[in-house]
Design a protein that fits this description.
four-stranded antiparallel beta sheet, 13 strands
Amino acid sequence: MIYKKIIPEIMVDLGERTVFEDLRHPYHILRLHIHLESWAGDDLLEIAPCFIVTERLMRSLLDSEFTGFHFDDVEVTTDQYFEDNYNLDKDLPDFYWMKVNGMENKDDLFISDDYLFISERLLKYLQNKFSIKNSQIEPERNEFDDLLDDIFAKRDAKNKPHGPKDNPDNKWLPPNWNE
């Protein structure tokens, strides 16, 4: 299977009623609350580490043979800023949480290195039947990506367990401790 990296429209924040099982990366969310700041009309949205779809897309995917996901409810809120600035000529749809659980070379969707990957056949399906015009497909890397990678690597290093065995040159360990 051939895959493309996709970065969906990002127009939401995690809401205050989101429930985390663990705050260390990778985050595991038990209950999702999103706060819409704006919506440009796409059927696929992202708020890392979660993916949100419109009800129309969810129903279509459930009736399809595509794999690598399941759905759950999401609480959606807006505020006065959203109400004052929402200018699409359509009602705000119901949204659902698309939980990606696919595996590479097996499913149509999977996550790797915090990115969503989509099979070419599912990508074509979405492009032909849904709005994903604000998604970036196969985005090019730039210096900002390198900066983020560095920040995430430092964050992950902080969350790694530290102890005397993590450093083989630790002078306080007895000789031949690891043999």
